[in-house]
Amino acid sequence: MDMNEIKEIFFQECEEQLAELESGLLKMNDGDRDPETVNAVFRAVHSIKGGAGAFGLDDLVAFAHVFETTLDCVRSNKLEPTQDVLKVMLKSADVLADLTNAARDGGSVDESRSRGLVKELEALANGELPSPSAAFEAPAPAAPAPVAVAAVKPTDESGFEPIPFSFDDFSDDETFEITFKPRFELYSKGNDATLLLRDLSRLGEMSIYCNMDALPALDELDPEAAYFYWVITLKTDKGEDAIRTVFEFAEWDCDLTITAVAAETEAAPAEELPMVPVPFDLSALDDGPEAPASEKSDASAAVAAAETASNVTQIASAAARVEKKESAAAANAAAAAAAAQNNAAANAAGQTIRVDLDRVDRLINLVGELVINQAMLSQSVIENDTTGTSSINMGLEELQQLTREIQDSVMAIRAQPVKPVFQRMSRIVREVADMVGKSIRLVTEGENTEVDKTVIDKLAEPLTHMIRNAVDHGIESPEKRTAAGKDPEGTIKLTAKHRSGRILIELQDDGAGINRERVKQKAIDNDLISPDANLTDEEIDNLIFAPGFSTADKISDISGRGVGMDVVKRSIQALGGRINITSKPGQGSVFTMSLPLTLAVLDGMVVTVAGQTLVVPLTAIVETLQPEASAIHSFGANHRLISIRNSFCPLVDVGRILNFRATQANPVEGVALLVESEGGGQRALMVDAIQGQRQVVIKSLEANYTHVPGIAAATILGDGRVALILDVDAVVGASRGQALRQEVSLAAAG
């Protein structure tokens, strides 16, 4: 790979680290004080800083270093992660993301904001806690104290020169006792313990002890294990941060403790330690011919073991010299076995791969065509084989099963959790809340709910509009909430869950709810409705989706509830989804989005209506039944009900709704499909006959033809005919008096 490819991989990993950072900070903000959570947050910033240094991204390195220093204070219990402290850190995580994006895309960041946060982070590291009143204040654009961070540059074969630090606190020599215990992961990732020890020796005067007590006999040696550890006494004026910098790429794969030792109680004499004293001689670490075993002392054997800890063959050789009981042949055999195990471990390490999304899309399209051709083949054989027991039929059944499994597996490749989108909303809540001076907490549930990648990509825009409007106009100011007896801190709850083969995303706020009188008056003023219009609460609530509608007195950067909500509705409908609103004055509002899990396939019931073949999404069907004359009841001129288990359900003639026929059909001569729709309750859809149940590939009408009211999409059947997929919600809405027009949601239940 060239450098650009490596850099792209780094930025992809940065996205994962930034997600881990925000997730951990939000857990801490909710009261999680688990050391592993704190370590994960520190590790994310630490990894970004290390990688950015390798590419010379100085601005990113400098900010990450200050952020990392403050997080280290939390990790070492020098700084209590209070709500106010975490607000600063969450803002810092946002700036770190901006710097990463700027480094990748060549953009710029708000320097005054980053400088202000650097100043706040340094104040926190120095023990200066932020005042609670500063929670909603923008950081002052003051120049930060200088941060001494140098670009990482290669020096020699040992790797990279440690990043130098300049702190007055460490101007005098200090003595540190360091315990360095590698785990096997350190060696499997290509790290070398001796190079780390060499870099450590450059910080000052150092003595080292190697403990080899855990080294087993050669026949019991595990070539992937780590048996040695070191206790080091280091006298340096560089400070603890410089020591940790040496281990920055290995700290998570070893047990590392660093303890400052008072001058009068420095490390214990060698005779008090159950270890082999090893004089640290840099020349012993140089690459060169190995000295004969007869010329090495026990101590130099320990150095040899240290310098070759990552090489399995030399570990076996060192073990042989220590034991002095095994033959060279046994050592070679152990080395060969170790190499084989290393190769097996390397092959087992790759658990995930990155695949270009276009390749996955092409694969999905091909599998869709495979499903269509399999259906056509099956239909053709059925029409020409009357026995139904031929070997061809049996083979086709197996082919159908395999095709279904392939399709399910391919669709699972595109399924991803909604967590990344939900995490992005956390930043929007923080930024907008700061702008309007409100205290708002975002609560998320069901972050691991999986949905098609295409749906996730297109979900961010409508959610952003809804979040901004909820923060700006859904949640009251702290003063109004207090006066109403509410918690001054508002809550927005974002949840995702699967239901009936679809994904439901709810955005709930505990604000004042929709002011229906004001909404209606604004609609009258904007000539959206007539002054004498008699609207239900639901119809008034849905006025906020009208284009250009807003309850805001003046346009702001954030906008009022309604501005952009027409975009929300169009975006959701474009995904084959729908959106509903429920609101209670004084208690808040709930926006419910129902989306298909995938935009590629669905399980459907193939039916006949007035000579036309339709597909009804199976997830919308509760049951099917054959109506009896005694169960049919008429009311009004054109309305009929069907009695189902001592309850009445409206009967809807699909052929009449879609204008396939001019008069209503006789229910007794057809089949009723009891369906469940979003917001419309249960309805019994009247069709002429049921052909069967099939999995069909969704083909967009808008992309290939034009929009058809009442129809969600189309598909190709096994006999090559095109069948229309019914939009159940549109049909149910039409049965309630709503006209089939462009604005009605045409959703294909996936």
TrEMBL record:
It holds the Pfam family Hpt. CDD domains: CheA_reg, HATPase_CheA-like, HPT. Residues 1-103 form the HPt domain. One of its GO terms (biological process) is chemotaxis. It catalyses: ATP + protein L-histidine = ADP + protein N-phospho-L-histidine. Its EC number is 2.7.13.3. Keywords: ATP-binding, Chemotaxis, Kinase, Nucleotide-binding, Phosphoprotein, Transferase, Two-component regulatory system. It comes from the Bacteria. One of its GO terms (cellular component) is cytoplasm. Residues 397-599 form the Histidine kinase domain. Involved in the transmission of sensory signals from the chemoreceptors to the flagellar motors. CheA is autophosphorylated; it can transfer its phosphate group to either CheB or CheY. This is Chemotaxis protein CheA. The lineage of its organism: Bacteria, Pseudomonadati, Pseudomonadota, Alphaproteobacteria, Hyphomicrobiales.
